[in-house]
């Protein structure tokens, strides 16, 4: 899985901002929308939207350094939707569909981002980059996750009205919420109210 600064600042339907760290770049990508009912959350409407999202992701790419086109946008949507279906099936203990795995494998086969060491000794990316390179890196992150030691720790948030997916890297493997400050806190409030009634 890709290392780096992790987590996104999301906004709940109620307008509350909270930090969500799914534990993997490929799962972070799922916050851009998805298939079926998740399409209403889609933020990838034009090629530039992909570059803008990459700046927010753990890749922290400057949108000015990312060249995207209509083909990249189409692949981004196919890859994201396939990753959603794969993640959902994994949370249920089901085998992913061959067609979805083929989309991930196709994207992963392209040249990925090239890492480099920046002047401060940190990790950076050789720029400029293409949307295809970024999508290959996302797909390769998915391959690493799905074939690695945390493959059986992909979880869906336990809140009835939240569909976010994350990797449970907690020691006991019992993480239930996408973020304690959002869904975990809401559950604590519900439980407190129920005890008082």
Total number of β-strand segments? 8
What is the approximate shape? globular
Strand content: 5-15%
Instruction: State mean pLDDT (0 to 100 scale).
Output: 91
The residue fraction in helices comes out at 40-55%
- Which strand order spans the largest sheet, edge to edge or round the barrel? 1-2
Order of helices and strands: EEHHEHHEEEHEEH
Secondary-structure class: alpha+beta
Provide key terms for this protein:
197 residues, alpha+beta, two-stranded antiparallel ribbon, two-stranded parallel ribbon, 6 helices
Describe the overall structure.
With about 200 residues, the chain is an alpha+beta fold. About 40% of the residues lie in helices and about 10% in strands. It is built from six helices and eight strands. It has a two-stranded antiparallel ribbon with strand order 1-2. A hairpin with a 5-residue loop joins strand 4 (about 115) and strand 5 (about 125). Helix 3 (about 70-90) crosses helix 4 (about 100-110). The radius of gyration is 17 Å and the shape is globular. The N and C termini lie far apart (about 45 Å). The mean pLDDT is about 90.
What does this entry show, briefly?
With 197 residues, the protein is of the alpha+beta class. The chain has helices at residues 25-28, 47-56, 70-91, 98-108, 131-147, 180-196, and strands at 8-11, 17-20, 66-67, 115-117, 123-125, 129-130, 154-156, 165-167.
Please give the structural blueprint.
Layout: E1 8-11, E2 17-20, H1 25-28, H2 47-56, E3 66-67, H3 70-91, H4 98-108, E4 115-117, E5 123-125, E6 129-130, H5 131-147, E7 154-156, E8 165-167, H6 180-196
Parallel strand pairs: 3-6
Antiparallel strand pairs: 1-2, 4-5, 7-8
Helix pairs in contact: 3-4, 3-5, 4-5
């Amino acid at each position: 899985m890709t290392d780096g600064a992790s987590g996104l600042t999301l906004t709940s339907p109620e307008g509350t901002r909270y930090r969500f760290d799914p534990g993997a770049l490929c799962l972070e990508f799922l916050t851009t929308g998805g298939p079926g009912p998740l399409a209403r959350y889609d933020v990838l409407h034009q090629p530039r939207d992909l570059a803008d999202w990459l700046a927010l992701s753990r890749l922290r790419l400057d949108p000015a350094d990312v060249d995207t086109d209509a083909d990249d946008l189409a692949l981004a949507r196919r890859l994201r939707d396939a990753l959603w279906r794969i993640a959902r099936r994994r949370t249920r203990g089901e085998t992913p569909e061959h067609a979805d795995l083929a989309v991930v494998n196709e994207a992963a086969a392209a040249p990925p981002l090239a890492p480099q060491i920046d002047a401060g000794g940190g990790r950076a990316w050789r720029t400029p980059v293409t949307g295809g390179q970024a999508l290959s890196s996302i797909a390769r992150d998915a391959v690493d996750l799905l074939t690695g030691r945390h493959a059986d720790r992909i979880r869906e948030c336990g809140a009835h009205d939240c569909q976010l997916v994350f990797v449970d890297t907690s020691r006991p493997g019992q993480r239930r919420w996408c973020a304690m400050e959002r869904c975990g806190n809401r559950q604590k409030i519900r439980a407190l109210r129920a005890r008082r009634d």
